[in-house]
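Work Package 3 (structural annotation) set out to generate three-dimensional models for the target panel prioritized at the project kickoff. During this period the team completed the workflow that converts sequence records into discrete structure tokens, so that structures can be stored uniformly alongside our sequence database. As a representative example, we reproduce one entry of 136 residues exactly as it appears in the project archive.
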Amino acid sequence: MILLQNIYFLDESYFHMNFDINGFDSNGIHKHTGTKYNPDDFDKDGYNPKGFDKDGNHKDTGSKYDSLGYGQDGYNEKGWNRNQIHRDTGTKFGPDDWSLDGIHKLTNTKYNPEGFDKDDNHSLTGTNHNPKGFNK
């Protein structure tokens, strides 16, 4: 099949293909890209390949996040992507120096230099206070 000025030639015969106002044919193929997405990467229903519309709302959830909790930019509400990289730091550690799995950036253990874990529990007391009674 060869497209030539919106006319398809097929087995020596041809027919004119109709496109809607957004440039999609009845099969959802865009006239300029030849795919189901227009040049701006949206389909005939207005969704990109990840299922988000131009306003960033997901077609299945109606929110800014897909069913797995990731937004159009690939990050979740707390700034983490699927590869556990934080949006703000570009590393596996968030701005608070903790990784998603509770490892501290400076000590490379589950405790920060003061002995507190990600949930603010001290390694020696198991509470939010150190042995001298001070909290973070």
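Residues 1-5, 7-16 have pLDDT under 50 and may be disordered.
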